[in-house]
Write a structure and sequence with these properties.
With 600 residues, the chain is α/β, with parallel strands linked by helices. It contains 19 helices and 17 strands. 37% of the residues lie in helices and 12% in strands. Helix 3 (62-68) links the parallel strand 1 and strand 2 (73-76). The structure holds alpha-D-glucopyranose.
Length: 600
């Protein structure tokens, strides 16, 4: 009897507690909306259009624009950095923030950056495997931790908004951005999108969290023939089933922003696609955050129609600022763009700035600077490297390598170059071909593990044919965006290895040397011949700064865990308009199925 009374009372307290917490949440949201409305009411049209404008910190007159044109956000991309040290980066952004706070209404700035695998624009930050490698781990706890560290190191360099994660579903390895996405699997993408947004945003108001951005809405990875910004020919049902669900998950996780995509869908540019941006995303999915344009959208996609489609913030860069501000003001005065549309955009911008706590804490926390690239962060990155590796072949148990092995020869420039192992969006937009601060190479990792002789034969010309094992590291050079599109005039990218890298493998295998090949690439490549020639073959994707983590698996300290996030092509003729399980030409048989991966 007494127990029942206690249980009853306990239930009452729990119910009261729950409803109080729920009521508090509701009242916080009501309070937030009241603050937004109160501020919106005071704003002039110029101030509202200013909030919709985003400029680069190094643009001429950036400081004056913030003061006089009421700029709402600043972006850092390829170009002059704010300085060498994180202290200098913070100092520059604090300077700009003070300009914004000195305007009539003192609305603080958002600072945005493409931190897509760590705070990769800052040399010395922890650089994680690109998302394709995280897709191979399929480990949401790990992705959550990585996002938290990326947010912290982004805040430490002065940013409160990252343009990540890319939640594309790539359907053609010819696309230059396959590696920015998690997987061809919608289910894996949904799972890791949720973890990434939770990790980046937390409750948004902490000094170590940032606004995340789900991108690029929608169909960026499913264009015909894998052309960046190309035409995505899909039925509404296919878009609904394969491409929209990661955004549904992102919106459920309260993602702060969604970025519009360069591609068109069935002939309509995504930046002008009102049905998908406003009707589907904003109304249908109840997305209450910011829709941000991609690069220089005003002049690329009929700017006024971009605003009318539902885009709230435009990257008014490369000379677009005045055209945008004057053009939009005129369009509002001529009622081509309604004040309701402008108010919807500004409401969303202010809402996220209040949620970030920017009005109370507009400046970055300087104590975070000492946490950039610390060992604890690098250990998480190394764990991600280990778990991302996929073992495709291991004849006669070549792996794990004995630490007592007498003589190893390591071959290939990718074995000893942290820029080459990290891919695009590393230090520079297009990545680096040099070693960069804080990173370790694959060769360094091998030397740490092996007790015998480790020789380095960069271009397979030193003929160490008496080695007990040749470890040949080959793959792609770094690239970003259309520079990675296979077939694009800007590059010589190809679906197979370069002749030079094919020769590295031939040189050692034809001499009968036991050979392990490690592939560094942003996508599956057609390497059927090279796999047949070698004794063991590992897909390492784009591991980032902790290259020495690879050897910890090769020498058996850890087992392989990675599974293919993409089906692996057999032949270059496999590529037609689209490539992937949902669009496959059913007569195609991949070399390895999605989800394949061997273990010890
Ligand atoms: C680029 C990319 C986008 C990036 C933006 C800002 O063109 O498409 O992913 O966030 O511009 O650099």
């Amino acid at each position: 009897m007494k127990t029942n009374i206690v249980l009853y009372l306990l239930n009452c307290f729990l119910l009261i507690g729950f409803s109080c917490k729920n009521e508090m949440k509701v009242s916080n949201e009501i309070l937030l909306e009241q603050k937004v409305e109160a501020l919106l009411k005071q704003m002039t049209l110029d101030e509202k259009i200013g909030q919709m404008s985003q400029i680069r910190h190094f643009e001429e007159n950036a400081d004056a624009h913030i003061l006089e044109k009421f700029i709402g956000s600043v972006i850092h991309t390829q170009g002059p950095t704010p300085g060498n040290s994180a202290k200098e980066w913070q100092k520059r952004f604090i300077e700009l923030q003070k300009k914004a706070l000195a305007t009539r209404l003192g609305i603080p700035l958002l600072f945005g950056v493409d931190a897509v695998h760590g705070q990769n624009t800052f040399e010395g930050a922890t650089i994680f495997p690109h998302n394709i490698g995280l897709g191979a781990t399929n480990n949401e706890e790990l992705v959550y931790e990585i996002a938290k560290i990326t947010a912290l190191e982004s805040q430490a360099t002065g940013f409160n908004w990252v343009f990540s994660p890319c939640v594309a579903i790539p359907y053609n390895e010819k696309w230059g951005r396959v590696y920015e996405a998690f997987s061809e699997s919608t289910a894996i993408t949904e799972k890791l999108t949720k973890a990434s947004i939770k990790g980046h945003q937390g409750n948004l108001a902490d000094a170590t969290t940032v606004m995340a951005t789900a991108k690029h809405f929608v169909g960026d990875g499913a264009t015909d023939y894998g052309v960046e910004g190309g035409e995505t020919t899909l039925s509404d049902a296919e878009i609904q089933r394969y491409l929209l669900s990661p955004y549904k998950i992102a919106v459920q996780e309260k993602v702060a922003a969604v970025m519009a995509s360069f591609n068109s869908i069935n002939g309509i540019s995504m930046h002008n696609h009102k049905a998908l941006i406003t009707d589907t995303l904003k109304i249908g999915m109840k997305f209450d955050g910011i829709v941000v344009s991609d690069w220089k959208a005003y002049s690329r996609f009929n700017g006024i129609e971009v605003v009318n489609a539902g885009v709230d913030v435009l990257m008014t860069v490369d000379g677009d600022l005045n055209d945008f501000q004057e053009g939009l003001k005129k369009a509002v005065q001529e009622k081509i763009v309604s004040t309701e549309r402008i108010d919807d955009a500004v409401r969303r911008i202010l809402r996220q700035k209040f949620r970030l706590g920017l009005f109370e804490n507009p400046f970055p926390d300087t104590t975070l600077i000492s946490k950039i690239g610390i060992k604890k962060h690098r250990e998480i990155a190394k764990k991600a490297v280990r778990e991302s590796l996929v073992l495709l072949k291991n004849d006669n148990q070549v792996l794990p390598i004995s630490k007592e092995i007498k003589k190893i020869v390591v071959v290939g420039e990718h074995a000893n170059n942290t820029g080459l192992q990290s891919g695009g969006w590393t230090v520079n937009w297009q990545g680096s071909t040099e070693n960069y601060k804080g990173a370790t190479t694959i060769l360094e990792g091998i030397k740490k593990q092996a007790k015998g002789t480790v020789l380095y034969d960069k271009t397979a010309t030193e003929n160490h044919f008496d080695a007990d094992l040749a470890i040949i590291v080959v793959g792609e050079i770094p690239y970003a965006e259309f520079f990675g599109d296979i077939g694009h005039e800007s590059n010589q990218m190809q679906l197979t290895l370069t002749e030079q890298h094919q020769q590295y493998i031939k040189t050692y295998t034809e001499k009968g040397v036991k050979t392990l090949v490690i592939l560094i690439s942003g996508r599956p490549l057609v390497v059927t011949n090279e796999i047949n020639k070698s004794n063991a073959f590992v897909a390492a994707w784009l591991p980032g700064s902790e290259g020495d983590g690879i050897a910890e698996v090769l020498f058996g300290d850890y087992n392989f865990k990675g599974k293919l996030p993409h089906s692996w092509p057999n032949d270059v003729t496999d590529y037609k308009q689209k490539y992937g399980p949902n669009f496959w030409d059913k007569t195609l048989k991949p070399l390895y199925e999605f989800g394949f991966g061997k273990t010890y």
